[in-house]
Amino acid sequence: MEIKTWLTLAEVAYLANLNIATARDFLNRFGDLITSCEFDDVIKFPPETTGIMISIAALCREGLGTEEILEVVREIKGEPEDGSQPARSPYIKLVRAILLVVDAQNLALRQMIQVMERIALMLPEVAIFIEGLAKSGQEKPDPWPTLPPWQGS
């Protein structure tokens, strides 16, 4: 277990696009299906918890009750209720694969949003810099110099 890959509940909620109260509610209702570990007095969850939370939220939106959701998530995780062999149907394998893809896409989207937010914070500074150049009379370097005709249009 590498501590860098495990997430706090707030991080799981953010990646699953849930508010923290909803994530806590899911943890209270479905906690026996969610693995956690304590690292230096901080409870952390494995990365796949994000996919589980996304699945639980989707099942709640579909109108399933707690017991039905427990059953579906146990199937997805391959944990049968009665202690028998885990379910191995192609459907469950497909759902697990889809959850992994959704989890990866969600993480990539969140990272892209963070980059865009940083860029948005930098834009006023760039505008001030350009305004300062204009007032000083210095020319801005042309980022798109004109190419000679023989090099294309």
Q: Could you characterize what this model shows?
A:
- The protein is built from 5 helices and 2 strands, in the order H-H-E-E-H-H-H.
- The radius of gyration is 24 Å and the shape is elongated.
- The protein starts with 8 loop residues before the first helix and ends in a 17-residue tail after the last helix.
- The chain has helices at 9-15, 20-30, 48-61, 66-77, 90-136; strands spanning 37-39, 42-44.
- The chain has 153 residues and is mainly α.
- It has one domain (3-139): Orthogonal Bundle (Multidrug-efflux Transporter Regulator, Chain: A, Domain 2).
- Helix 1 packs across helix 2 and helix 3 (48-61) packs across helix 5 (90-136).
- The model has no long low-confidence stretch (mean pLDDT 78).
- Helices cover 59% and strands 4% of the residues.
- It has a two-stranded antiparallel ribbon with strand order 1-2.
